[in-house]
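Comment thread on ticket #2218

A.B. wrote:
> Attaching the input chain for the structure job we discussed in standup.
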Amino acid sequence: MPPSDESKSGPLTAPLESWGALWIRVLELVGGVSYLLLDVVGWLLLGAFSKRVRLGRTAMVTQMVRVGVRSIGIVMLVCGCIGFILALQMQPPLADFGQTDKIANIIGVAIFRELGPLVAAIVLAGFAGASIAAEIGTMVVGEEIEALEAHALNPIRFLVVPRVVATTLSLIMLTVIGDITAVFFGGLMTINFLGVPYELYKANTLEQVVINDFLTGLIKAAVFGVILSAIACYNGLRVTGGAAGVGRATTDTVVQTIVSVIVADLLFTMIFYSLGWT
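C.D. wrote:
> Ran it. Output below, let me know if you need it in another format.
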């Protein structure tokens, strides 16, 4: 009798097989998302330079309202809490050196460079990314994508492009709102409860935060928005297996987006550090 598949996988080969399967899935995701983004860029260029291609501004505005405007409240809540947390956590070690007023410097750098775009992206991944994947996945299950193709309507043009553009623009604006909220609430905590004068907090913030801090945060937010929306659309378009497939697509979207955003944040930080922008 020939050996079974289980007998071929010994204790030494099983970890290698698991790692190999993981990297295959990663490469498949990177390749699929990259190909999807190339298609999106192609349609955007056609829409910008060809009068015959109209991308639908109404659809983009609708997606911005659904994705961005409805996320403002939760982004402000989360970023405001982070501002409070940073102020409270930094006070004891800084007080030992008589530098409590430097809380403003730490909050400004941490929020504008890192936490603002990162937190906004993670919140949007759960709020909008899963929604986009489920919506497009439901269309796939209901054969609405095939109906579009049967009418010679490209699903990338009519479904993916508006969502990618809307999510990217929304995340940039949400990052600005989150930055302001975190700095304001962190300052509120510092001024009212930690005894730092308002003028000193304001002066330290303006002295520490430069335009590069703000711009690097916005660059990260734009890339995070592209990653988030592309992964959500990709997982939605490849749904199989009915309702269970839609559930898997939403779960995969949230996990893959958060991991991808953190890895991208690490790469950006390394690049900005090498350029002297940190």
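A.B. wrote:
> Thanks. Noting for the ticket: Residues 55-275 form one domain.
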